[in-house]
Amino acid sequence: MDHVRPWRAAHRATTTLSPKPVTVGCRCHPLLATDVGPTHIAVVEVDRETGDIHWLRYVAVDDCGRVINPMLVDGQVHGGIVQSIGQAMFEEVVYDEQGQLVTGTLMDYALPRASHVPEFELDRTETPSPVNPLGVKGVGEAGTIGATPAIVNAIVDALAPFGVKHLDMPVKPENIWRIINGH
Q1: Is the model's pLDDT at 86 over the cut of 50?
Q2: Are 47 and 180 in contact (CB under 8 A)?
Q3: For a Cys staple, 62 with which of 3, 52, 71, 142, CB 3.0–4.6 Å?
């Protein structure tokens, strides 16, 4: 298999003391891909007084090949979107001035609650994968791939009247409030 040769060359190079430089590469054929190709659209509005995000709409369309169990696929996508809400808006590892971790427990590390999660409008296309007899593709990361940038970009779009073109994650309400109020 062509995709194994570069790995073997790199492995041999790292297990010998050869001073020669090693170039490692991989050739991929698009027809052999099993990615899900998600499209996610988030629409939000920002509360000017608190910086809170209010969901207006969330739409996700994924292609995970042939769907054998639709309920499991929807569950995977739901979970991925909620994980992305956490990444985009809440989750942060924080250290104090002495380098001590202060978000080491779930009491201190913010995660999304049910009240932070919008209603999802999900749909899918089914393009069978040509690389396996079932025509299935992976769906475990489908929600996370498209959701995080869709969420952050929706917030950036809502803050465009304030000149915002970029936001670092997590986009917390207090950060939004500072932007709106010029602090």
Answers
A1: yes
A2: no
A3: 142
Q: Check if the beta carbon of residue 38 is closer than 8 Å to that of residue 61.
A: yes
Q: Considering the chain, what is the average pLDDT of its residues? A: 84
Cis peptide before 170 (omega within 30 of 0): yes
- Contact 124/72 with Cβ under 8 angstroms? no
Across the strands, what pairs with 40? 60
Answer whether 99's CB lies under 8 Å from 37's CB. Answer: no
Q: Could you say which of 3.40.50.12780, 3.30.365.10, 3.40.50.300, 3.55.30.10 is the CATH number of the domain covering 33-180?
A: 3.30.365.10
The neighbouring-strand residues paired with 95 are: 101
- Cβ neighbours of residue 88 closer than 8 Å, sequence gap 6 or more: 147, 148, 151, 152, 155, 169, 170, 171
pLDDT band for 2, please (50, 70, 90 cuts). Answer: very low
pLDDT digits (tens, 9 = 90+) for 15-62: 555 556 656 665 655 555 666 678 999 999 999 999 999 999 999 998
